[in-house]
Amino acid sequence: MMTRAEYIESLRRLNLKVYFMGELIENPVDHPMIRPSMNSVAKTYELAEKPEYQDLMTVYSPLIGKRINRFCHLHQSTEDLVNKVKMQRLMGQKTAACFQRCVGMDAFNAIFSTTYEMDQKLGTEYHKRFTEYMKFVQENDLTVDGAMTDPKGDRSLSPSRQEDPDMYMHVVEVREDGIVVRGAKAHQTGAVNSHEHLIMPTVAMKEEDKDYAISFAVPSDAEGVFMVYGRQSCDTRKMEENADMDLGNAQYGGHEALVVFDNVFVPNERVFMCREYEFAGMMVERFAGYHRQSYGGCKVGVGDVLIGAAALAADYNGVPKANHIKDKLIEMIHLNETLYACGIACSAEGEKMPAGNYQINLLLANVCKQNITRMPYEIARLAEDIAGGLMVTMPSEQDLRSEKIGPYVEKYLQGATGTSTENRMRILRLIENITLGTAAVGYRTESMHGAGSPQAQRIMISRQGNLAAKKELAKVIAKVDESKDRK
């Protein structure tokens, strides 16, 4: 396993092509806009080194016969699935941001089981290839960008009917030694901090869409790959000189990028699906299930930090004993633990796949994510309620430090007797960061649209809910005689 320092150095060795605000970034690792998100990923390496977190952060791999970082693991039991969620909650607690390695982990498990079943039915060698790829990932402790979401263009049209064929990633040439692909993947979490891009199809396919049914892996600095860094609310605060307090969370963050593949060559050994359109939906469904489980961990960990910040804001405001404040904090805890319960439940109810790895209960994973599309918004609303309006009207840190006006800021932003004005401002900025600032991308909007927008889960709940069986249960209890019904 890599150390934190080794991970950072490994990124420096990559020849990444990253654009931000129209300019090519020469050094992504130390760029003030990107560094906090890189710190979040580095934390996954740092905690894996600590003995007290070994059982959560690391696990024995039967593939290479060594202990590895859990983010590179193929789940071997329901206990593994549960520990995954616990690890993600821990990471959320430590960073209060998106730590970016979950998508790759979820892609590993979805592709592993899907390629096995493809080979069984079609006689292909995709599973063998992917197993070798997983050994490579585990031996080198890589961070991998699991990439599913295509730009999609006109959502009313299938991939093959788009006016611009590049709106979905597709094969443009099949060679004896590999394939050439073109397209893009949007909203890619942690792409700039990743060693590899692992590509999956984004929707179920029909035969007419077979050129779009592809899965493969390429290095992040492969020829023809470049990234356009996404904007976040309040992100330019990171560019301010000596930025600290006004960032809310100066050390950690997340990011998303548009990753463009401009006629990229992929050697055969890194191709895991090529035109097997009938298996595209299976891969999409399994990945979505794993990733919807993930949100029952990571969002809960960030929620823990937000609840703690709201409680501290109440302390600094001098109202910790007010009944309505206590009730709001209780509701925040209740909602957060409900999300965690769903993540644990879909893990505990998981099952072994034909490939040998374990998959979560898909129905409960979709219920988990459906709750995630709602409850973090209410937790955030309650945090803003408790914090008060000062959270969004506060003067800057520079004002607090000013010789001329600093004493007035110190005097008039004083909260409860005996408390520090600076500490009060720091906590309010943290709440602002999670609910409205850069971290809101990962806590609020990603809760809505990440791992599929709300309707996607409702479709899966409808499919998995087995309404017909529930009708039969009711018929037996009520002694329904179907012969009496008009046909």
From TrEMBL:
Residues 144-163 are annotated as: Disordered. Pfam families: HpaB, HpaB_N. Keywords: FAD, Flavoprotein, Isomerase, Oxidoreductase. It comes from the Bacteria. Residues 280-478 form the HpaB/PvcC/4-BUDH C-terminal domain. FAD binds at residue 189. Its EC number is 5.3.3.3. GO terms for molecular function: oxidoreductase activity, acting on the CH-CH group of donors; vinylacetyl-CoA delta-isomerase activity. Residues 3-273 form the HpaB/PvcC/4-BUDH N-terminal domain. Signal peptide: none annotated. InterPro entries: Acyl-CoA_Oxase/DH_mid-dom_sf (IPR046373), AcylCo_DH-like_C (IPR036250), AcylCoA_DH/oxidase_NM_dom_sf (IPR009100), HpaB/PvcC/4-BUDH (IPR004925), HpaB/PvcC/4-BUDH_C (IPR024719), HpaB/PvcC/4-BUDH_N (IPR024674). The keyword Transport does not apply. This is Vinylacetyl-CoA Delta-isomerase. It comes from Odoribacter splanchnicus (strain ATCC 29572 / DSM 20712 / CIP 104287 / JCM 15291 / NCTC 10825 / 1651/6).
